[in-house]
Amino acid sequence: MSQRVFRRFVEVGRVCLINYGPLEGKICVIVDVIDENEALVDGPSSITGVSRQSIPFSRISLTDITINIPRSCRHKTLVKAFNQENVLERWAKTKWARKIASKETRANLNDFQRFQVMIAKKKRNRAVRAEQAKLLKANA
Asked: Is 87 exposed, middle or buried (0-12, 13-18, 19+ CB in 10 A)?
């Protein structure tokens, strides 16, 4: 019974991903908890483009990254802690961020690039099937 059910908690300094609205896809930091439904978040705006505002918890997703900041800290303090903890680099290394970047790259492909991807997939699948057939033949 010592295992915890949740690993990510709503807390001051928790880095979040905005999952709805005009700022969708940007990361922010919880600066203060307003009530059980909302948090005061800040980007910081000079780095991520998210200005200080209240956002409902339903519109943010908590990440594993936390930074050590005081409650309702000033923008300057947040920027210093954000840069000191290398939050953007730590975020970019996560599987979640890489998956988002991959989806964005695929969405921005033109018709010819999608065609090239299709041909590469066909070539790869053909090679896999040929190797699998060799292994089955060798085992039979």
From this structure: buried
Core vs surface per residue 1-36: b (16+ CB within 10 A) or e? eeeeeeeeeeebbbbbbbeeeebeeebbbbbbbeee
Rounded Cα distance, 39 and 98, in Å:
26
| C-alpha separations of 80 from 8, 68, 83, 133 in Å | 23, 11, 5, 58
- Where are the extended beta strands (E) located within the chain? 14-18, 27-33, 38-42, 53-56, 60-66
Question: In the prediction, which pLDDT does 131 show?
Answer: 96
Is 44 buried (19+), middle (13-18) or exposed (0-12) by CB count in 10 A? Answer: buried
Secondary structure (3-state) at 37: coil
Element (H, E) at 124: helix 111-139
Whether pLDDT at 1 is above 60 = no
